[in-house]
Design brief:
524 residues; alpha/beta; Rossmann fold; 4 domains; 7-stranded parallel β-sheet; 20 helices; 20 strands; 42% helix; 16% strand
Length: 524
């Protein structure tokens, strides 16, 4: 673990091991600057843009410092259920070597299930303010043992009208708690909240917005079912036949498994990650630089030392966990003013992360269909014809003419050419496609944010009628409705989401002006 820079920040060894397992050895700026502050016991205000690794910035020191006493020791407030689930999942990964119980609580999920989990005993609770307040009022969420309080995406919680709920929750926590506030921006109400509820000597860590440019790289994504991830990659490799490509996986284990899968199918590929010896990594990298190896599979950390001008393609076999890693990955191609190609395999669950990447980088990532078996075959045939024509133009065919004449005595020329093409095609085709097309993943509903809630006298029926009256859509296309105190979430069929976004903002429900946005476009 000596090569892991997280080990220099004061984190305990089991935490460093967990983050090494995820393929990370170098902290981001917000992690490097805020982790020592949190470990020192000081309150912290962290200001950094989305996608800079804020979840790990507060989770790692909390897991390191947390006591072993009974009760909830860390409370993390997030603006949306999507972010709450994401934070919960990441803490689970970061605390894999700890005996911790982590629970996410939010509206739209069974409150009875959440209450049962709380009664069994929980160490860390992540959730939305509305559901937390509901659990507090039911006397099911006891916060008297809280050591750490985190406000994640504080500016988003302000925008969504959570400020009163947050203050109410804060009043139920011990005064001696350590408070960590993270926000992309610092509007006056957030600054006032920090001043009122954080210690006077709270430390500010501010990371300047970096320029995330990906201008010369053609970026595309392919919507897939997770079970088709390997075949989708193989279809793309077979269609484009890249001269030099890096394929990125999230974890070292993922690299090993993909190398084994591709090698078993005949692809010439090798892997690189931190568990491999330095000598092995250097040998692999030299092969890649010299061009004797065209496909390299790597983790983010292993690829940071790769500076090869000729990389034509980058494949995101797994999307990364933050925006900066995505930019670093695809920056391996398109070097020295050349154009590059970046492909990402995306499941419906990954789509929110993809949107975040697009929003932060301000780049266009175009959706393309996964190639069909017919398209791959036709492309290979076309390439073979081009190769033969180039060989004829180049000459130097004299030594092959006697054999060609012998074949021509017994077979017609068309059959000879077709036979040679078949041999070449069979030698180059390594994946046995059982179907022409891969099944497309089912589209998920679009989740919309409405700026009205229970406090405005809203009921599901009132909201459905408002949507129907303004858009004339069928009620059957309106799915789950989650009513909160100050706002609501509505899941709708993708086919009508644009119509609702166009027609519903600006109206009034019980004298309250209505604003509507796509919930997934909020920062995660």
């Amino acid at each position: 673990m000596s090569d892991n820079q997280f080990s220099t920040l004061g984190l305990k060894e089991s935490v460093v091991k967990a983050i090494s397992d995820l393929g990370f050895t170098k902290p981001s700026q917000i992690q490097e600057q805020s982790i020592p502050v949190t470990l020192s016991g000081a309150d912290l205000i962290g200001q950094a843009q989305t996608g800079t690794g804020k979840t790990a910035a507060y989770s790692l020191p909390i897991i390191t410092k947390m006591s072993d006493k009974k009760g909830i020791k860390a409370l993390i407030l997030a603006p949306t259920r999507e972010l709450a689930v994401q934070v919960n999942d990441e803490i689970q990964r970061l605390s894999k070597y700890e005996n911790l119980e982590v629970l996410s609580v939010y509206g739209g999920d069974s409150i009875d299930r959440q209450i049962k989990a709380l009664r069994r005993g929980v160490d860390i609770v992540v959730g939305t303010p509305g559901r937390m307040l509901d659990l507090i009022k039911r006397k099911c969420l006891h916060l008297d043992s809280v050591e750490f309080l985190v406000l994640d995406e504080a500016d988003e919680m302000l925008n969504m009208g959570f400020i009163d709920d947050i203050e109410s929750i804060l009043s139920h926590t011990p005064a001696e708690r350590q408070t960590l506030l993270f926000s992309a921006t610092m509007p006056d109400p957030i600054a006032k909240l920090a001043k009122r509820y954080m210690k006077p000597d709270a430390k500010l860590v501010s990371i300047k917005r970096s320029s995330l440019t990906v201008s010369k790289i053609e970026q595309s994504y392919f919507m897939i079912n997770n079970k088709h991830r390997l075949e989708a990659l193989c279809r793309l490799l077979d269609l484009d036949n890249p001269n030099s490509a890096i394929i990125f996986c999230k974890t070292k284990r993922g690299v090993d498994e993909l190398v084994q899968e591709l090698q078993s199918k005949g692809y010439m590929v090798e892997g690189m990650h931190g568990d491999m010896t330095q000598a092995h990594r250097l040998t692999t990298l030299n092969k890649f630089k010299e061009g004797t190896l065209s496909l390299l599979i790597a983790t983010d950390v292993a690829a940071r030392g790769i500076d090869v001008d000729g990389v034509t393609h980058v494949f995101n076999y797994d999307l990364p966990q933050d925006v900066e890693s995505y930019v670093h990955r695809i920056g391996r191609t398109g070097r020295a003013n050349r154009e590059g190609t970046a492909y990402s395999l995306v499941t419906p669950k990954d789509f929110a992360m993809l949107k975040q990447i697009q929003n932060v980088t301000k780049s266009s990532i175009t959706q393309k269909p996964v190639p069909t078996a017919e398209e791959i075959k036709n492309k290979k045939f076309k390439d073979m014809v081009s190769e033969v024509e180039e060989a004829i133009k180049a000459g130097e065919l004299t030594k092959f003419i006697p054999s060609a004449m012998e074949l021509a005595e017994n077979h017609d020329p068309i059959s000879i050419i077709a036979g040679l093409m078949k041999i070449k095609f069979d030698n180059e085709s390594v994946f046995d496609y059982s179907a022409n097309k891969l099944d497309a993943p089912k589209k998920e509903d679009v989740r919309l944010f409405f700026s009205v809630g229970k406090r405005d006298g809203l009921t599901p029926k009132v909201l459905i009628n408002y949507i129907k009256d303004r858009t004339r859509v069928n009620a059957s296309t309106i799915g789950q409705i989650d009513l909160m105190e100050n706002f609501s979430f509505v899941s709708v069929d993708e086919s009508i989401s644009k119509k609702i976004l166009d027609k519903c903002p600006g109206g009034k429900i019980n004298k309250k002006k209505v604003n509507v946005e796509v919930a997934n476009k909020r920062k995660r």
